[in-house]
Amino acid sequence: MTSSIKLKAQTHWSLNPSLIINTPARMKKTVAFSLVFLSPLVAAQDLTDGQVDVVSARLAESALQSWEIGTHLQTILELNATTYSVLNTKVSLPPPSTVPSNEQSALAPFFQLTKQVVSNRTTANNNTAGAQPFLPDGSAADPASIGVGVLIANLTGQDAGQVNYAGAATDQLDYLLNVVPRTSDGAISHRVSEVQLWSDFVYMVPPFLAYYGVTTKNRTLVAESYNQIKLYRQYLRDNTTGMWRHVLMGTSGNDPGFWSTGNGWAAAGMLRVITTIRQSEFANTFTNEQTDLANWVQEIHTATYPHLDATNVFTNYADQPSTATGNFYDAASTALLAGTVYRAAILLKQHASVPHAEKSRKTLFSTNGTAPDNNSGSFTGYAHFDSNGWLMPVVNPHSYGVQGTQSPEGQAFVVQLHAAHRDWAAAGSPGENGALSSVHVGPTALLLGVLTSLAVIAL
């Protein structure tokens, strides 16, 4: 890993949290802590509906940066609006133009978000006309993560005649394809100011390109979604370890380490592209590409999970011990990667990593007390959530070599993991037998729970 830490670009425009979703008032904020509970405790369980609501509320009130908004949108689809989730194997693309009555409530905050982004983009981008991102950002890729949401708003006729979703999506696409710098062989830069490649890109851009292509019958765009992943893999995948490096190229901020979240971003993005293609009219003409993408997802799982230690929680850089500079245990990447394993088990029939995902899930979702009832939103007794429902410990989402306290993307990864496990169980728990023989939650793991320091300030 590198000692040079580059902050993620901050968006100068942000959402008003009160307009995002009806949530309780912002709860007390817990700061200045380093809390590392590293093991499963007594009761391994699923999160209750009440707990998922609490985690989702923290996500809704905190997801203000471009990639956080895009990840929030995707999380809503995976949890409660699965008719519009490409990870739902029972739907085909394009999706229905009329929102089913049983998903209208779930999609209300989704459409609030897309409307606010598109309605404010002209002002946010200083009255720019033509090619432009949904939001101004130092990252060329992160705003594109909002693109699938904007396309769904357009396809379902939201705010007809009032908000130009189609035009906004076209401008974002034009910006990516014709304004953002590229490598000599065509890889679109993750950054605006110079060519620099980040593993995060695979979650932000290719799913948008694929979805745009499928919903507009543009085979070239579908092909480009695959091509961008192929190029990024050629640059970022390490042939020795099989893992993806985080940031390469550019004049500063390189991070050649095997960032756990970055590997999770790449796997999750590829899964979305695979299923977008598979459920479209182009499925039979991209069979080789789908095979490649499936193999590349498996590569990441095969390469990263051997580094999961007895705590069942990944370190920030998967191959480095928690004591290394810039390293610590990170529940956010652990949740993200585990969610992709369940999805791969359902979608790709890849089961080898299911035992590891089960260990991680049970560790993250365990309590040392009595399991709460399904309506309870309490996290009392949970090692990996504070009393307000924030996942911990987590990497600072704005400075990837620093431990943080509250991570919007970490909250999204928790909900995505919950939804992926739910769908995996509904599909018959493929790979379960192997997992059951491998998972053990016992006293040794209990002793690994370490409280290193705690200073709570209630604001």
Widest beta sheet: strand line-up:
1-2
User: How many structural domains?
Assistant: 1
| CATH topology title | Glycosyltransferase
CATH architecture: Alpha/alpha barrel
The gyration radius over C-alpha positions equals 21 Å
Structural class, judged by helices and strands?
Answer: mainly alpha
What's the total helix number? 15
What percent of the residues sit in helical stretches (DSSP H or I)?
Answer: 40-55%
Which residues sit in consecutive blocks of at least 5 with pLDDT less than 50?
1-7, 9-14, 16-42, 436-459
- By CATH reckoning, the class would read Mainly Alpha
The tally of beta strands, per DSSP, is: 4
Main β-sheet: number of strands, strand sense, barrel status?
2 strands, antiparallel
Mean pLDDT: 88
Shape: globular
**Residues in β-strands, percent:** under 5%
N-to-C CA distance:
35 Å
- What series of H and E elements makes up the topology? HHHHHEHHHEHHHHEEHHH
